[in-house]
Amino acid sequence: MRGSQEARSSTRVTETLPPDVVLSVRDLSVEYAARRGAVKAVRQVSFDLRRGESLALIGESGSGKTTLALALIRLLTRSARISSGQVLYQRNGRAFDVLLLGAEELRRFRWQECAMVFQSALNALNPVMKVWDHIQDTSRAHDGAGRGEIQRRAHDLMRLVQLDPGRVLGAYPHQLSGGMRQRVLLALGLLLDPQVIILDEPTTALDILTQRAVIDVLRRLKHELGFSMIFISHDLSLAAELADRIGTMYAGRIVELGDVNEIFYRPRHPYTLGLLKAVPTLAGDVAGLSSIPGSPPDLIHMPSGCKFHPRCPYMVGSCVESEPELFKVGERHVSACFRWQDVHRETETARQ
Amino acid sequence: MSQATIAPSWTGSGRGGPLYELGLVLRLMARNPAGLAGFIAVVLIVLLSVVGPLFIPLDMTMNPAKIYQPPSWTYPLGTDYQGRDVWSQIVHGGQSVLLIAFLAALMSTLIAVTFGALGAFAGGWVDGVITFVTDVFLTIPTLPLLVVLSAFIKLNSLPLLSVIIGALAWPVLLRSVRSQVLSLKERDYVEAARALDLGTRHIIGAEILPQMLSYIVISFVLAMRTAIYAQTALIFLGLVPLSGNNWAVMIQLAWVRGAVFFRDSLFYILSPVLAIAVVQLALVTMTRSLEEVFNPRLRTGG
Amino acid sequence: MSVSASGALIELDHISRTFGVGKQTVTAVDSVSMAIGPGEIVCLVGESGCGKTTTGKIVAGLLPPTSGRVLFEGRDVMTLRGDDHDRYRRAIQIVHQDPYASLNPVRTVYGTLSPPLFRHRLARSRSDALKRIRELLQLVDMTPPDEFIEKYPHQLSGGQRQRISIARALTVEPRFIVADEAVSMVDVSIRISLLNVLLRLRDQLGVGFLFITHDLALAKYFALHGRIGVMYLGRVVELAPTNALIEEPKHPYSAALLSAIPEADPEVTRNKVRVQLRSLDVPSLLDLPSGCTFHPRCPLFEEGLCEVYRPELVGIGGRREVSCHVVARQHGQVVAGGTGR
User: Fold this and answer.
1) Considering the entire predicted model, what is its pTM?
2) Which of A40, A202, A307, B138 lies at a CB distance of 3.0 to 4.6 Å from B171, suitable for a disulfide?
3) pLDDT beyond 90 at B59
4) From CA B112, how far away is CA B171, in angstroms rounded?
5) Is B95 a member of any domain?
6) Does ipTM top 0.90?
7) Strand partners, A87
8) Interface residues on C facing B, Cβ-Cβ cutoff 8 A
9) Considering the domain A15-243 in this protein, what is its CATH number?
């Protein structure tokens, strides 16, 4: 059946992770080399992912969320460099650092332990291969399952993502709609029963009703199969639907991290608050809506201190001098802002 | 956004005079050292061919005693089959080559851009006719045609040769221009220009063609290269009884005189060959810098 | 038919637009009728393939309809000549979706904004043009204006480029702007500020808008005092004032859309009741269902009626129009037989 690769003892981590933590990212930093200088795309990001938990990384352009996701499974381009940090992965009580895996172990790690589901653009799938070929390829590359077994698994997966196997397995990518392709990509990700799935903008560019179908499928799958999920998006409403925990990212760092209700109803960072106020809802009032002035910083020449300070209504002198670390502001809730209490106060009074 | 914006006049800002623009162009080309070297080489060769003849007279004295002399101080590149200085012939031979190439490239580029853009923009039967004519020309085998032509027309005048070469080179460029215009036509900003009622002339001249400027200029330079090859081949094969000073004619004469068979005459035949080769290399290398000049993104370091 | 057309700035009268795809024809827009008054905001919402962008281009005069009439100030645009035609062309402008494709990359802001000023003789010299351009940049919140005049598009952020697009539309003093997903490709945190710019144009200059979007929450914000039209497979299935539509959608497709939208509020969105449709399959435009094109998916489907007769857009009171046999009947309107397919 599916073999699990023994981690080399050199990559085994001496400290132990809490038993229910599947992935622990510590101080991860990624840099790109550009003509004008080094682009600090991800800066000292740390978070834990528990078993069965879904974490939403929300950020806009330049926040570093996509780079972070690619770094977790080491799919970055050659011009990118992981300059520091660890990505600790735990299975069956054994933990190892993904960043130290050798080529073969990394290959097994990807897809068997941790799969990535990309956006459903036409070029996410090979246009000259049918869906069945994709499944067969992926299966054969990672374990030696026989054809009959692969077929059975393929049918199961199609049904899991609410696609008709008879119709979809024999189709080419361009014959499927965007929503169907996204679900095929999801099925491919689930093929080897990974513990962690990373999804990159899973519902962007999809129509409303298709989006709904994908969200419902994801929710059901998470419930039935129990995997942990990290999804990156700029869409707060997606986080509201699916996330257990949310991390908002700005200029390469996580600026706030907490449970979904904490983030939505008791945000403690000005950027999170700004995002919440900038997104109109059908149910909500239009009166309180406002944009965040300014634009994201240049990732090569960032402002001093807190990178959000040029756009922040709470800015004071200390914000320009030093960059705040993540302070504990609640139960499993951290925020990188010196004035988080003032932010908290504002949301409390607004709710009165 | 941290660097000053540099905006040449054709982009609509019109700041800075011609000297400023020249300095700007040179600075941009310098970003690609090989390209700048090519550009400088081209400039030098042009200068040599245009100004040189005014200072270095053509050696017309025939001196049988000085046949096929090796290079020396008096004869930097040796002498030819009639004892004449080769160097002066090289200096005088460039004008004709470059002029033919320039005229031919100009003609083919003009035809290709005008009709390619027209066909793509007009569509309908206009486009159909242009495409058909282009296809016909594309299928004509050039060399055999020229062989046949040379039997009927005496291709011994410079303008005539330019026209003939130019007339056969435009189809490929036209197709490329046409397809680029077809795709540029669909761009959002072109649609906005239509909504603003800016007129076809503005759209083609100010919205579409400037995007293709780098492509057109590079194509022009490469067309010159092709024209030089074409005339060299034609003259060498004896199809074009061109007289006068011309590097290709020098090669043909040297060949006919059997200069390849004597060690002493090597410089006589190699000089024009190398001259042509250097020009070709310079032209091609120069195109590397041209991209830098026409791309605003590269220009402002954004 | 449509709401009373007196005083309408733009009116679509049974507009259709078909495209040939090989031997087959695709009907992108099918018999759409709508009247938009001066300074009015109408949102067109729908999923991909519903024809909203094509309709927008027809309204903007960039695409001719294959049948039907477009009326400007009550007159058929095909009959306009000379000055009248010029006035029509200038009166309706467009702002595109993609900030990276909407501006000519080799022209500076000045080079993009000055040609329409010169062409339509709204400026006679460079200093004239600069003065007007500064005003326009102020209007779209690009201050200080002089900082941007010599910039190229690639030196501007996505939001800034969209503002330049808007400024460009404003150069000819339009009365109406078609905004085709104008904020969809811009960062979430600045969408509202862009929409506020557009709303201010409406308040200060009386410019009307046709705002095309797939985001109903944005539509609610932007067209708060306007109307929303829901399109499906080339047809308008419902047209109503914004609040009325959002509170109480009449057409089952509108109801399905509204209930399907995820909201940025966990309590609300996790407890929302979803309208279930009979099928998730979206029919291909090459092979449309008979009668009411929504019938294979519609929870209100009535056999013998919905797949045979095509419903028309009828008024059901309160400036609301719906294209559905069942709903029309509930409101005392009979869609008399209709034209079968």
Assistant:
1) 0.83
2) B138
3) no
4) 7
5) yes
6) no
7) A25
8) 60-62, 86, 89-90, 92-94, 96-98, 101-108, 110-112, 114-116, 119-120, 126, 149-152, 154-155, 165, 168-169, 171-172
9) 3.40.50.300
